[in-house]
Amino acid sequence: MDRLAFITGASSGIGQALAWRYHQAGWRLALVARRSDEIAAWAKAQGIPPERWRVYGADVADTDSIVAAGQACIAQQGLPDVVIANAGISLGVDTAEREDIDVIARTFATNNVGLAATFHPFVKAMRARGSGRLVGIASVAAIRGLPGHGAYCASKAAVVSYCESLRGELRGTGVQVVTIAPGYVDTPLTQQNRYGMPFLMQAPDFADAAFRAIEGGVSYRVIPWQMGVVAKLLRLLPNAVFDRALSGRARKHRAKG
């Protein structure tokens, strides 16, 4: 069966690594990002046959843009078997700074509304077909709020809750909802971090583990598993202990400053 994977944020990092892993497994690719020229150049450089992929330029923060990309995919390549809502942004914020309120709004527009809009064009058609997988890329940052990371942590916590809700809505339809929560993965998104990143993974290793989890039909998976253990322990810490442990920790870069 010639299966099709629709992947957002495919121009770099986790999205690109997932695209390569799905190609290696023999899937056709529907690749989505704002920088469509970069994806096309990458696919050609990798020697992926042109009939095995298409690029859809879209901004997931623009609902009409990403919905149109999904509709174009169905029209040109058919209904995907897997849709991976991977596109996301991560910036530090300081609520005392007015411009950072706009950063929070942009983060939620991309990481949350954009995720739902990515799934939207496919839900009814997958339900009618009785099969498909909708994959939301969350983060272990969803587990507890980290100082200076309020926008990202909150948005990824919302990804977990949204996917859980959607999973319940689609129960019994044959459409599965999978939540993947990466730990630290070596990508352009994390390379500017100013703090230690335990259990740092290379993007191809993460993509391989995520591919196996998605194909296995799991509902929720933290990758790597060690970060899942760390996340559970952090959740159990009393607030006073957690707050003291995070005191003085370096914060993520803000958009300004």
A few lines on this structure:
The protein has eight helices and nine strands.
Summed up, the helix count is: 8
Instruction: Quickly give the CATH architecture.
Output: 3-Layer(aba) Sandwich
Overall pLDDT score: 91
What's the CATH class label? Alpha Beta
Strand content: 15-25%
For the largest beta-sheet, the strand count, sense and barrel status come to: 7 strands, parallel
Radius of gyration: 18 Å
Give the fraction of residues assigned to helices.
40-55%
What is the N-to-C order of secondary-structure elements (H for helix, E for strand)?
EHEHEHEHEHEEEHEHH
- Examine the coordinates and then state which fold CATH places here, giving the name of the CATH topology: Rossmann fold
What multimeric state do the chains show?
single chain
How would you name the CATH homologous superfamily?
A: NAD(P)-binding Rossmann-like Domain
Task: Tally the beta strands.
Answer: 9
Strand order, largest beta sheet: 3-2-1-4-5-6-9
Distance between the termini: 51 Å
| Count of separate structural domains | 1
Q: Can you characterise this structure?
A:
This protein is an alpha/beta fold and 257 residues long. It has a single domain, classed as NAD(P)-binding Rossmann-like Domain (Rossmann fold), CATH 3.40.50. The protein contains 8 helices and 9 strands. The protein has a 7-stranded parallel sheet, with helices on both faces. The protein has a two-stranded parallel sheet with strand order 7-8. Helix 4 packs parallel to helix 5. The longest helix has 32 residues. The relative contact order is 0.14.
